[in-house]
Amino acid sequence: MTDLYPVPPAWAARARVDAAKYDAMYAAARDDGEAFWAEQARARLDWTTPFTRVRDVSFDKQDFRIEWFGDGALNVSANCLDRHLAARGNEVAILWEGDNPNEQRRITYRQLHEMVCRMANVLRSYGVVKGDRVTIYLPMIPEAAVAMLACARIGAIHSVVFGGFSPDAIAGRIQDCDSKLVITADEGMRAGKAVPLKANVDEALKHCTSVETVLVIARTGTAVPMQAGRDVAYADAATSASISCASVPMSAEDPLFILYTSGSTGKPKGVLHTGGGYLLWAAMTHELVFDYRQGEVFWCTADVGWVTGHSYVVYGPLANGATVLMFEGVPNWPTTSRMWEIVDRHQVTTLFTAPTALRALMREGDGPVTRTSRKSLKLLGTVGEPINPEAWRWYHDVVGEGRCPIVDTWWQTETGGAMITPLPGAHALKPGSATRPFFGVAPEIVDAEGVVQHGAAEGNLVIADSWPGQMRTVYGDHARFFETYFTTYPGKYFTGDGARRDADGDYWITGRVDDVINVSGHRMGTAEIESALVLHHKVAEAAVVGMPHDLKGQGIYAYVTLNAGVEATPELRAELVKWVRHEIGPIATPDVIQFAPGLPKTRSGKIMRRILRKIAENQVDALGDTSTLADPGVVDDLVANRVHAA
Ligand code: WT7
């Protein structure tokens, strides 16, 4: 028996969507999607040219295309700013708290509009025009949102790179999309320590030829080397820039942004979203999943370097005229009460965070939570990875004092916004279940052959039809887009996740079924970590798999075969860990490195990852059939020398 948490009476009374309305809207979107989405898009967004075509979609190879509102035009920044000015220009758009708890900024819609116009004019003055790519490498400061919206205002395509990525990772992402301009800061601040952002950009740009200009925002004010002719102090450029800038009407299908994410093979891919469908999805899910009301304070803890930050720190809330809290720091600094202190200080009504953060805070006990009030909280949310029922109950009972529903939102960088999620006034909750599809989402569970499973079932999760927030292509590689998502189960979008549907029709995401691992809610391609390892001159071969990890959800377990004659020492192990951090960034830090004289391979040379996964999970009795291995003996050595995580 799973626990069931019915909709609290207060929520049943207040919510925009109750159970009956959910059913009616779900049916309307399914049965007449054209009418449903036309109405939503007209009601929620301001169009400079109204669309007449709602959707034009085919997932088939011959006429593969995904278009929504294709003949309409709009500007995303105007939808997030200008249209709010008359009614709520003086209301707070961004409530910012710095890493240092004494640093606060409150930015109204009017001020944000001016900041965005000014930066848009600066971008123009450095030659950025519609369609150009701009890379943004910033800490969690309001200027990150300003930079994104400034690009959107003039039709430039932004590519935000998370501030925790290394110079090599930045370089790869700049080269892939040929950015002409980079927006960064002198330094970022995290838990009282400075992060050398500008220095990382300098290092990255040694390998990039496309970048003509680097705009440097002063965050800490420390002096950083400035390369003449390339680097510009943003404050200097901004003083002469006008605070008015007309927004450029864009086709609904013009690109809005590229966001790199890891896949099961190759380098990270540039997931591309367009303006119309994406903004509609971000705005509508933000309003209905969180039942957002004017005046409430919405806090999504994600960094803008991830899609969660794009959709629920910037685009969704601002399109809805919300007040969004933006936090620069980390949950446990300077104290383990920090998150709850922020909730109290800013009277946060909705908190949207990741299971990994909750597990870390739960370890500190209830004291750091219960010493705060949290009375302002009405709704809680999670995203990024399956939440274990224990963490769910702690979040519900201790953080929310049993009063706040939890929306466990399943989605992906590719989907633009929440896809399977409870609506707080409509669905009874089950700890660990993402429950029901959002409007217009057609999930199916299929077996390995693609046969659709009905009723209670477990298998692979596909989405049978398009939705407005769907990614449109992999930047620069449309063939890879089709290949990655539409060939495993022809005619359907394959998510890469496994899922179970219970007898009530609720979905439970079981995790990735491909070679992608989920470390603290962040996606890592095992292939990427392997490539980083084999770049080291002492490494012959490497295979990386996920392992269970109490805090991170999954940890990184790397099997490494050294070159002949190289001695396997603890020092080398430490060196390789450092190497991977340097190549990709701290989020890719291996938890375990096991030196392996040989890897389990089939006679055709394919590594049998299934066996490596079992060993990493310490399920050495469940290795399965090893008889097809070229050398079954390697398995004994791997088992005998298994490394237990610290
Ligand atoms: C992968 C997508 C969604 C934005 C943040 C991550 C996993 C995400 C959940 C959830 C179980 C989840 C999936 C998915 N995932 N949310 N609520 N329950 N798993 O975006 O980096 O594109 O990762 O995160 O495995 O495929 P992302």
Automatic annotation (TrEMBL):
ATP binds at residues 384-386, 408-413, 497, 512, 523. Its EC number is 6.2.1.1. It comes from the Bacteria. Residues 22-80 form the Acetyl-coenzyme A synthetase N-terminal domain. GO terms for biological process: acetyl-CoA biosynthetic process from acetate. It holds the Pfam family AMP-binding_C. GO terms for molecular function: acetate-CoA ligase activity; AMP binding; ATP binding; metal ion binding. It catalyses: acetate + ATP + CoA = acetyl-CoA + AMP + diphosphate. Acetylated. Deacetylation by the SIR2-homolog deacetylase activates the enzyme. Mg(2+) binds at residues 534, 536, 539. Keywords: Acetylation, ATP-binding, Ligase, Magnesium, Metal-binding, Nucleotide-binding. The keyword Kinase does not apply. The modification N6-acetyllysine is found at residue 606. GO terms for cellular component: cytosol. HAMAP family: Ac_CoA_synth (MF_01123). Belongs to the ATP-dependent AMP-binding enzyme family. Catalyzes the conversion of acetate into acetyl-CoA (AcCoA), an essential intermediate at the junction of anabolic and catabolic pathways. AcsA undergoes a two-step reaction. In the first half reaction, AcsA combines acetate with ATP to form acetyl-adenylate (AcAMP) intermediate. In the second half reaction, it can then transfer the acetyl group from AcAMP to the sulfhydryl group of CoA, forming the product AcCoA. This is Acetyl-coenzyme A synthetase.
